[in-house]
Amino acid sequence: MELALTAAFASSALLLSNLASILLASSKLKARRLIPPPSGNQPPVSIVVPSRGVEPFTQETLQRALSLGWPRYELIFCVAHAEDPVVKLINAAIAGHPEIPAQLLIGDDRVSANPKLNNCVKGWQAAQHNWVILADSNVLMPVDYVQHLMAAWRPDTGLVCSTPIGSRPDGFWAEVECAFLNTLQARWQYTGEALGLGFAQGKSMLWNKPMLDANGGIEALAAEIAEDAAATKLVNGLGLRVNLVASPFEQPLGQRTCAEIWSRQTRWARLRRVTFPLFYTPEILTGVAVPLLLALVAAASAGVGLPTTALCVLAFAYAPECLLAWAKGWYLSPRIVTAMIVRDVMLPAIWTRGWLGGAVEWRGNAMTIRTKAMTELEEASSGA
């Protein structure tokens, strides 16, 4: 009986913490609304977009970037290699919007082991304005994209970000990706902000350029293998906050495979484990696997039916997730609960993989993830 009570208490505590995270995230998130074009003088903005390869929604994301409702902005597209097929699409998009100051820069500045950061360096250096947005090429920018980012800036802000919200999934595995991105990862990121633990997200990052330049410039983001982890530590070190936009931006997904999700999620897990190990450790408790296992142990010890127990746990875990998605206008479908279950089956394996070494892959680039301490140790050994 003691085992049953202990397991039941632990399971209930985890399920209640899951519910609390949804309520906290919901308090920070706002349903999508259009912010009208600003009146009066507004600061001009530079938007740096690192690109690589052609994706299913590339043409749409390019058109969105060239159709923003901010009075003055420039676009700087960055591509590492001239033979990349996306170059042709970018040039055509720029030519179709001569009213928008836009340019394409080609080259690869090797300031880090992070290929995306390397691709951004030339754009950062070319940016003419004091406000700079680093935006991934697969962000589906709404017309009020800049307004949402600027609205989240406060006197104590060092960086404004947006986590991606998965949309337009084509097939079941893309729905699994939505289950990862939206009601799990975005939810916990907004929960962290509600608790005063703001973490940067590299999808959309609004910087005050003079501030970052005074603290090492964009090269300072090479201090960690992930530029968003380096950004978080830099901003926090300055006594400033990382803020999130109230309504995060879409990332249209299209088709996904199980292998692609595994590769992407294990890469992110490894990055989180190396850069924020204390926060990564309890991630194993965020899915339904642990509370379900504990509830089944309690049920078996107390002689309660296991199927009924499992259904109650799943309902208590997934109903609030679905309500959060519905309230914020995120993707929902009749298969989303099944996608959430598959996600939570994968989570323990992904979490375990995060503790293991070895290279990970980012868009065809093999990356060996190292901590700063590992690099300094190797440098000291080589110089001895």
Automatic annotation (TrEMBL):
One of its GO terms (biological process) is glucosylceramide biosynthetic process. It is a multi-pass membrane protein. Pathway: Lipid metabolism; sphingolipid metabolism; Sphingolipid metabolism. The keyword Transferase applies. GO terms for molecular function: ceramide glucosyltransferase activity. GO terms for cellular component: membrane. The chain crosses the membrane at residues 292-318. The keyword Secreted does not apply. It is found in: Membrane. This is Glycosyltransferase. It comes from Mesorhizobium neociceri.
